[in-house]
Automatic annotation (TrEMBL):
It comes from the Bacteria. It comes from Actinoallomurus iriomotensis. This is HTH marR-type domain-containing protein. GO terms for biological process: response to stress. Residues 57-190 form the HTH marR-type domain. The keyword Transferase does not apply. InterPro entries: HTH_MarR-typ (IPR000835), MarR/SlyA-like (IPR039422), Tscrpt_reg_MarR-type_CS (IPR023187), WH-like_DNA-bd_sf (IPR036388), WH_DNA-bd_sf (IPR036390). Keywords: DNA-binding, Transcription, Transcription regulation. GO terms for molecular function: DNA binding; DNA-binding transcription factor activity. SUPFAM superfamilies: Winged helix' DNA-binding domain.
C-alpha cells in the first residue's frame, strides 16, 4: 500500500495531526525483546496510520480541529510579523472590550500563569499599545488599559489578517457559505455555553 504524501502550504497535515492529537508514530511499536536491527517495519501499518492523518479520512470533529489549527497557525504567523504573539493578541482583544484588568485577571482569562505574561505586557507597553494605571479604589493594584494606538493597531492587524483568510472562502457558493456560517456559529455557541469562563473576544 502506498502512502499519500500531500502536505499543502501551511497545513502540513500529517505532521500537524500527529502533533495536535498525539497520534502514535507511523511505525509498529518496538518489541523490547528483539534486537533493534531485526525489528521489522510494517508498510501496511505505516499506510494505515498515514491515512488516519489524511484530511479525507478524518472524522468531522477531528477535521474541524485540524482546520482551526491550520488557520490559527497562518493567522499567528501574520500577527507575529506585526509584533503580536498569540498572548499579546489575546491581551489586546480582552482590553478592547473596555476592561481595565490586572495582569492576574488577564492571565486567568488567557489560561496561563501571571508570570507568563510578563514579557508580553512589557512589549505591549513599550510599543505604546497598553498603559499601566493605579486602581482608583485600591492603589496597590495596577491595571492595564488599551491605548488609542493599541486599538488602532489591533483593528488594522485583525482586518488585514481577515483579508488574508478571505481568499480561502472565495470558492464557496452562497448556499454553502450560509451552511458553514450556521454550523460555525452553532459550534461557537455550544462551546461558550460549556465554558464557565468569560466570553472569548474576537481574535
Amino acid at each position: 500500500m502506498g502512502i499519500r504524501v500531500d502536505l499543502p502550504e501551511c497545513g502540513r497535515w500529517f505532521a500537524a495531526e500527529r502533533f495536535a492529537f498525539n497520534l502514535p508514530p507511523p511505525l509498529d511499536p518496538p518489541d523490547p525483546g528483539r534486537p533493534l536491527a531485526t525489528r521489522a517495519l510494517s508498510t501496511d501499518n505505516v499506510a494505515v496510520r498515514a491515512s488516519e492523518a489524511d484530511p479525507e479520512h478524518m472524522s468531522l470533529s477531528r477535521l474541524l480541529a485540524v482546520a482551526g489549527h491550520v488557520v490559527a497557525l497562518r493567522r499567528q504567523r501574520f500577527m507575529g510579523s506585526h509584533g503580536l504573539t498569540p498572548h499579546g493578541l489575546a491581551v489586546l482583544a480582552y482590553l478592547e472590550q473596555g476592561y481595565a484588568l490586572t495582569q492576574r485577571e488577564l492571565a486567568r482569562r488567557c489560561g496561563v500563569a501571571p508570570s507568563t505574561l510578563n514579557h508580553t505586557v512589557e512589549h505591549l507597553a513599550r510599543s505604546g499599545w497598553i498603559v499601566r494605571c493605579r486602581d482608583d479604589s485600591d492603589r496597590r493594584l495596577v491595571r492595564l488599559a488599551l491605548t488609542e494606538s493599541g486599538h488602532r493597531h489591533l483593528r488594522q492587524v485583525q482586518d488585514a489578517a481577515d483579508r488574508q483568510i478571505e481568499p480561502l472562502l472565495d470558492h464557496l457558493a452562497p448556499a454553502d457559505e450560509a451552511a458553514v456560517r450556521r454550523f460555525l456559529l452553532d459550534t461557537v455557541t455550544r462551546l461558550q455555553e460549556d465554558d464557565a469562563g468569560p466570553d472569548d473576544p474576537r481574535f
